Amino acid sequence: MFIISLAYRVPLSEVDRFIPEHIDYLNEQYQQGHFILSGRKEPRTGGVIISTIEDRQKLNNVLAQDPFYREGLASYDITEMVPTKSSEQLAFLVSNTINN
Q1: By percentage, how much of the chain surpasses pLDDT 90?
Q2: For 66, phi and psi rounded to 5 degrees?
Q3: C-alpha atoms less than 13 angstroms from C-alpha of 86 in its C-beta half-sphere
Q4: pLDDT at 99 over 60
Q5: What three-state secondary structure class fits 42?
Q6: Tell me, what's the pLDDT at 98?
Q7: Sign of the dihedral defined by the CA atoms of residues 65, 62, 72, 49, in that order
Q8: Model confidence over 40-89: pLDDT tens digits?
Q9: Banded pLDDT at 96 (limits 50, 70, 90)
């Protein structure tokens, strides 16, 4: 699982031009089961995506399709995590393997 933090590199007026295409991109990734949560940061300096993709190279390929990435509008900080504890509602995300 990965947490992707986007930080805008350009003025919001430029970001806003690509919002409809970015939403289409997000919808496609949700449909394919790659993303489970996303939203903008407050204040509006970027966004956050949580992805259940398990392979970093596959994630990189998926993120390269984002118009924000393609147009150089945002930088991406990616953190990989192995969920080991959750609420009951998110138990399906918890890894069955815990490494010491």
Answers
A1: 81
A2: -70, 130
A3: 13
A4: no
A5: coil
A6: 46
A7: positive
A8: 999 999 999 999 999 999 999 999 999 999 999 999 999 999 888 888 88
A9: low
- Identify the bridge partners of residue 80 per DSSP, sorted by sequence position: 2
78 touches 2 (CB < 8 A) = yes
Residue type, 38: S
Burial label, 36 (beta-carbon count in 10 A; 0-12, 13-18, 19+): middle
**Contacts within 8 Å (CB) and 24+ apart, 22-25:** 22/66, 22/67, 22/68, 25/65, 25/66, 25/67
Q: Radius of gyration (Cα) for the chain, nearest Å? A: 14
What is the C-alpha to C-alpha distance for residues 54 and 39, in angstroms, rounded to an integer? 21
Q: Which residues contact 45 (CB under 8 A, 6 or more apart)?
A: 7, 8
